[in-house]
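Open question from group meeting: does this chain pack into something compact, or does most of it stay loose? Before anyone orders reagents, we agreed to write out a predicted structure and look at it together. Recording both the input and the output here so the notebook holds the full record.
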Amino acid sequence: MSEAIDLEELRTGIRDVLEAEASSERVHRHYDGDATIAADLRRIAGELGWGALGVPEGHDGLGLGLRGLSVLYEELGRGPAPLPLASTMIVADMLARRGDEAQQTRWLPAFAGGRAFAAVALDGRVAVAANRVSGSFDHVVDAVGADLFLVRAGEDFMLVAADQPGVTIEALPAVDRTRTLATVTFDDAEGAVIAVDADALATHAALAVAADSIGGAAAILAKTIEYLKVRVQFGKPIGSFQALKHRVADHHLALELARSLIDTAIAAQDGGADAHAIAALARVTAAETYAAIADDAVQLHGGIGFTWEHDCHLYLKRARMNEMLWGNAERHLDRAADHLMGRAA
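Structure tokens returned:
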């Protein structure tokens, strides 16, 4: 089935839906506290089978892997859409790789149909004894509304259902309101061990952030260029000024470099060398490019770019969150260096 899906047609279909359901007006309403926007997106994603893209065909999915998921992640970033599919697809990927039959049967069809969502808790103070988890994780992305947690406890990983006794989720304020943050506490909560491929998890997370960043950067850059065409100063559109042309050209160049790295990293997942290192470098490059473009977009829009009503702050906040999501730049650069040095040795 997956071979019959054209990725550009998939992109067009996702974009058409998000332009209607995650339009600028609707995302601003979400920022202002309208909870129906995110709920509608979850329902629509389930009906359209977006969660099925990363789930194997044997579990009601389409089995498109990172190549197909990168299209989804990029389009979600263009919104930017308040939909926690990246976290869910990372957990689905880990389950598909090494989960046992019971774990896969319980969760993968639910992810594919949009009936369940997941979050990843990586950095916390946790103790595990006899398949029971105690401890807490701060600033867990997409934890609010999650049905399942993939928890790292030292070198081990566990799956903990959110409805287990002893699981507490305390929402935290987030600058980027297209995502939720929460402190997740486990008090002798029952879990199940899963043999996670830590490199595969880090690579999937890195490429998810990278693709989201490319989508957001391209969207806010396009909006900025349109503004430069209509904003008149000294009797001319400011986009005609040479200095601003050079700034936009530099952003385009950086964006294409980041996109090329993502394409190379995804291709490397099919057996190329240094796949994990390239993914880490793609993530750092894309996130930094997004932050630079979003920051400059505020400046190029002038006073209106600083207002709550404008889109600039939506992208800038998402970009800043992306720089820290599932590890900062230093961590990913260290990871890239470790893989490259290990290969050289």
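Observations to bring back to the group:
The longest strand covers residues 132-141.
The beta strands are 118-121, 124-129, 132-141, 148-153, 156-161, 167-172, 181-190, 192-194, 232-233, 236-237.
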